[in-house]
Amino acid sequence: MLVFLLIAIAFTVYALSSSSFDIEQIMSFSTSVMVAAIDLGTVLSGYAFSFRYEFEKDPLKIMTSNWIGGSPSLPYIKTPSVVLLKPNKTFHAFGCEAENKYASLVEDNEHEGWLYFKRFKMTLHQNKSLKRTTTIKDVNGEEMPAMTIFTMAIKYFKDHLMGTLKSRVVNITEDVILWVLTVPAIWDDGAKQFMREAAAEAGILREQLLLVSEPEAAIFYYSHFPMETNFFEPGTKYMVLDLGGTCDTTVVEVQSNQSLRELHHVTDFALAGTKVDDAFYQFLAKLFGNDVLSTLKDENMDDYIAIFREFELKKLTFKPESETKVTIILPFRLLEIFEEQTEETLIEVLQQTRYAETVQFIGDRLRIRPEIFKEFFSHTLQGIIQHITEIMQSFQGESVSKILLVGDFSNSPMVLNAIKESFPNKTVTTPADPGLVVLKGAVLFGQTPRTVSCRFIRTSTAVSSGIGM
Asked: Is the backbone of residue 392 left (phi > 0), alpha (psi -120 to 50) or beta?
């Protein structure tokens, strides 16, 4: 209890000197018994939480939810960023549930009027000035207010967490939870206000909400590693490489007062894991043709989704030294459509392509030699290495000492190996689950007194934007 009293006092002293806080937020921080974080990602989203009494014993004891994918054997650490609305524009489902329901509607030709927002954050990533009037389009071009979609997403995770706690017979109410939302580093104060308002409409009170930028959350997580005792040594520069639906790169420098000054930030859409997916799609298009794939997507979206769910798993587990063929199970309907449209079999067509000796089709399985599978990564990895090199050169190379890997695509052994081989003189750090770094870092941001002193300062404005966001 003494520790929490000291935390509350330190937090109060700082907060009283900041116009970003009021007494209600101070009291909420000191009296909350749990911190919960929500990360709305470009491709995947999720939440994490920890109790204050457990945090005191083990700060890294942070709990997350397992999400079921296409089958019970494929649990996700996060769930796809997909929102499905009913024809009356009310919320129906989020994540895999939304994907599966919409696929079923398409297959039964009953999807007319339903609104399907996939990777809804992607359309807003370059818009750093979100407003209430900002709209986003679903897959069929139907527009909805972005505020409505974000509100539904936040409310979904809030309600899911409360349901999870109830199922575990945890007697806790919403008024004792401190919520933390992650936001892209590029978003300005208006966009952050947009998130506050979306959270308020989702039922999260202003005094129970903190915002943290994604790279800042990542750094907070890494700073709690046992081996990182000198993590906040003044003058140290870190590159945070967030690889997900986009490639977000942030370089920060530790200041003498242990604040974190942002020196560089850039978002690149061409260097993300989705580009590896695109390369795999082009591979399938060479075998089956775009028309066949489009027909499968239009008539049997569940089968279409299943192909890329399986590829996602193989993409994140394939190792550069692998000598084993990669097997992708093809849905029977895909082969049926192919033969209907081409009047040929896949085996016959394979012999006419450059893949005659490197790809096999046996039963319903496509077996791909490792050298071909590596080609799906080549363009993206070359771009990532060039991207890092250019940033290092702009900082005269040696001054950036560590590369901190974050994001779901960082799970790929191909990514980690390429970066380590290309920068042998740099410390490249990644935890067991890099896809959860930002989420868990956001929880630590809400839990630890270090958030008081290690604020994020932008070079362009020289204004602290850490806790007070």
From this structure: alpha
Q: Which one, of 180, 246, 213, lies nearest residue 455 by Cα?
A: 213
Pairing of strands 209-213, 177-183: parallel
The helix-helix angle for 273-288 and 370-394 (nearest 10°) equals 150
First-last CA distance in the chain:
28
How many whole angstroms separate alpha carbon 124 and alpha carbon 142? 16
* Cβ(410)–Cβ(430) below 8 Å: yes
The pLDDT of residue 86 is 97
- Hey, how many other C-beta atoms are within 10 angstroms of the C-beta on 219? 24
Distance, C-alpha 117 to centroid of its chain: 16
On whether the CB atoms of residues 14 and 216 are closer than 8 A, the answer is: no
Name the band, by pLDDT with cuts 50, 70 and 90, for residue 246: confident
The four Cα atoms 195, 201, 207, 210 give a dihedral, to 10 degrees, of -30
Structure-block tokens of residue 446: 């809400």
Q: What is the mean pLDDT of residues 377-384?
A: 94
How many angstroms separate the Cα of 254 from the Cα of each of 223, 235, 262, 459, 468? 12, 5, 9, 12, 19
DSSP string, 108-150: TT--TT-EEEESTTGGGTT--S--TT-EEE-TTS-EEEHHHHH
pLDDT of residue 249 exceeding 60: yes
4-13, 217-226, 404-413: least confidently modelled range: 4-13
**Total residue count of the chain as it appears in this document:** 469
What DSSP letter does each residue of 17-75 carry, written as one string? T-TT--HHHHHHHHH-SEEEEEEE-SSEEEEEEEEHHHHHH-TT--EE--EE-SSTT-E
379-417 b/e with 16+ CB inside 10 Å = b? ebbebbbebbeebbeeeeeeebebbbbbbbbbbbebbbe
Cα distances from 196 to residues 43, 131, 210, 220, in angstroms, run 22, 12, 9, 22
pLDDT value at position 397?
Answer: 60
pTM of the model: 0.84
Q: Name which of 394, 329, 415 is nearest 366 in CA terms.
A: 329
- DSSP state letters, 300-356: -HHHHHHHHHHHHHHHHH--TT--SPEEEEPPHHHHHHHHHHHSS-HHHHHTTSTTT
User: Could you report the per-residue pLDDT of 313-331, keeping only the tens digit for each?
Assistant: 899 899 999 999 999 999 9
CB within 8 Å of 363: residues ≥ 6 apart:
none
- Classify burial at 203, counting beta carbons within 10 Å of its beta carbon; exposed 0-12, middle 13-18, buried 19 or more: middle
Residues 302/100, Cβ–Cβ less than 8 Å: yes
pLDDT in tens, 151-182: 999 999 999 999 999 888 678 888 899 999 99
CA distances from 407 to 38, 307, 325 (A): 15, 22, 27
